[in-house]
Design brief:
By secondary structure, this protein is α/β, with parallel strands linked by helices. The chain folds into 2 domains: about 160 residues, 3-Layer(aba) Sandwich (Rossmann fold), CATH 3.40.50; about 160 residues, Rossmann fold, CATH 3.40.50.1370. The protein is about 35% helix and about 15% strand. The chain is built from 11 helices and 11 strands. The strands form 3 sheets. The chain has a 5-stranded parallel β-sheet, with helices on one face. It has a 4-stranded parallel β-sheet with strand order 4-3-5-6, sandwiched between helices. A two-stranded antiparallel sheet has the order 1-2. Bound molecules: phosphoric acid mono(formamide)ester. The site of phosphoric acid mono(formamide)ester has 10 residues, from α3.
Length: about 325
């Protein structure tokens, strides 16, 4: 369980990686080093092995997770629940905040203070950028962001990177093409931030109005990465080692006419995949709404369902790590 030391949440007192995660909030991937990522991926490998061998463990028996979602979710919410249950812990699920005291006007800090009275760790999805950081400031227990508006989705970034490594055996040296709504896609922002730690070349494929925010682009350039921008998948399909496709996020558009103009801008079809490398990974954070045709699903390079499963192993690893049990 997390404790307070000199008014701060407890972080590692030893150089041991395990200790460096204990009691820590996870609100942005900016907080991770390559060594952190190697450590978490190693724990995720162990979690995968446990689940495949025996299904569950009692590593977090007696611990409680508060799963607080102010925005819709299928994968993130259910994989956090599955992760906690497979580790032997319990969950307080709050997935319809309209049925909680949020609908009576309760503030985020008060909701967080309430939940940390009952739980040992809080997972939060919220529509406002920075909400997880606010929650973490008020909580003495670890807060893990499950996505904050158009900001970041750090656990998705981790599972995406873990998937690239699992599929291709390396991250260094890869050409990663990110396709679709790069402006509003929080998974894109987190993954791009993680890729800056590796020797990668990136191509950002989007319509003009959905380009990667300048802040994210400049971070990549400052880290020494080469960043290309184009509006055509044709420019990358033959050279990409990873094609990371995203949905155009209707819910982020103030003017739905703008959404209609770009919603079908990219479609990954079997004919397009026939031009891609034999060894590459086609990824998508999901949900998809037409960007990848269903008849691509049987292609061995289609990694998005394995990517989704990896989310549970990464979240098991993170829960165990922040609770000092990894
Ligand atoms: N990838 C992802 O965040 O999916 P959900 O919105 O279903 O959680």
């Amino acid at each position: 369980m997390a404790t307070m030391v000199n008014g701060q949440k407890r972080v590692g007192l030893a150089a041991d990686r395990r200790h460096s995660f204990y009691g820590r909030d996870i609100v942005s991937v900016k907080q991770f080093s390559r060594e952190d990522l190697t450590y978490i991926f190693g724990v995720a490998n162990e979690m995968r092995s446990i689940v495949r061998r025996v299904g569950t463990t009692d590593l977090l028996k007696g611990y409680v997770l508060a799963n607080l979602f102010y925005e819709p979710s299928t994968r993130t919410s259910s994989s956090f629940i599955a992760a906690m249950v497979r580790l032997g812990g319990s969950v307080i699920p709050i997935h319809g905040v309209q049925y909680s005291s949020v609908s009576k006007g309760e503030s985020l800090p008060d909701t967080i203070r309430t939940l940390e009275s009952y739980a040992d760790v809080i997972v939060l999805r919220h529509p406002e950028v920075g909400a997880s950081e606010v929650a973490a400031r008020y909580a003495s227990k670890p807060v893990i962001s499950a996505g904050d508006g158009v900001g970041e989705h750090p656990t998705q970034g981790l599972l995406d990177l873990y998937t690239i490594y699992s599929e291709l055996g390396t991250i260094d040296g890869l050409h990663v093409a990110m396709v679709g709504d790069l402006k509003n896609g929080r998974t894109v922002h987190s993954l791009a931030r993680l890729l800056r730690l590796y020797d990668t070349t990136l191509t950002m494929v989007s319509p003009d109005i959905l380009r990667l925010p300048e802040e994210n682009k400049q971070e990549l350039i400052a880290a020494g990465r080469t960043v290309h921008e184009t509006d055509s998948v044709d420019d990358v399909i033959e050279s990409a080692d990873v094609l990371y496709v995203t949905r155009v996020q209707k819910e982020r558009f103030a003017d739905l006419r703008e959404y209609e103009a770009v919603k079908d801008c990219y479609e990954i079809t079997p004919a397009l995949m026939a031009r891609a490398k034999e060894r590459m990974a086609l990824m998508h954070p999901l949900p998809r709404v037409g960007e990848i045709h269903y008849d691509v699903d049987d292609d061995p390079r289609a990694a998005y369902f394995r990517q989704m499963e990896n989310g549970m192993y990464i979240r098991m690893a993170l829960l165990a790590a922040v609770l000092g049990k990894a």
